[in-house]
Amino acid sequence: MRSALVCGAGGFIGxxxxxxxxxxxxxxxGVDMKNHExxxxxxxxxxxxxxxxxxxxxxxxxxxxxxxxxxxxxxGGAGFVFVGKNDADIMHNSGMINLNLLxxxxxxxIPRVFYSSSACMYPAYNQxxxxxxxxxxxxxxxxxxxxxxxxxxxxxxxLYLAFARCRGIEVRIARYHNIFGPEGTWxxxxxxxxxxxCRKIAMTPNGRTIDIWGDGKQTRSFLYVSECVEGTVRLxxxxxxxxxxxxxxxxxxxxxxxxxxxxxxxxxxxxRHIPGPLGVRGRNSDNRLIEKKLGWRPEQPLSVGLAATYExxxxxxxxxxxxxxxxxxxx
Length: 331
Description:
331 residues; alpha/beta; Rossmann fold; UDP-galactose 4-epimerase, domain 1; 2 domains; seven-stranded parallel sheet; 10 helices; 38% helix
């Protein structure tokens, strides 16, 4: 039986990846600092612990797994990444995890390791125009990420590539672009835009007002989690090292994102634009390289994934505060 290790299995993408690997007949060990908040893990063995601890890292990588997926990181949406106060933790915690993991994987002769980087590592100067951002893989240098989170991702990309060159371990690197879907963080400060807007719209009575950070004209693309997992597995088993974008190229403004969710919810709400952490002005996945190297690119329309996500978050809101008891959305 093939075996896989998923680091960050208690998180959003990691939880979905475990399900995919189990459906393929893998024996799966999941690792995280916490259990999954919204689902019971399907992993055969789920280990709670801190990958920043080199002893723990050696403990969980105690065999030669066929595939190791490294998704563990200290991360969140704009309200976590761009406020400044979390920068030291983000860089220290994620950096320690990757340093420990690579060291142990080399000693255990792990054949191949997948690393989840982020589109946040792309230069801010190429993402000032909301209508034509440049996120082609080759545009990464000269480097100027818009956050310390992006700088850590860029450092870790180079760390994995250096280990591949110098230690003989095979790596696969993907740059994720705004992954969303059910069973992801939807409140508490670490949620990303689709989940935050689904929550606000679910909690707000028809005809009322929701708050949106910025002028609403900033652009992004959002990839549904099942397509993220598909791209991840395809890259892992390909001959292409990466880095490569895994994201949608269906770019929308944040206002358009909110409007789409309102249509799904059957609500008409006013949008009030307020100051808040924003990141770059525009971002969109460039999918030419992944199509060339893997013969695949994400194709599911944004509205399809949003419908499934809104339904799940609406159920979470209802379960928490009681049906038909929707207070005004939080500021």
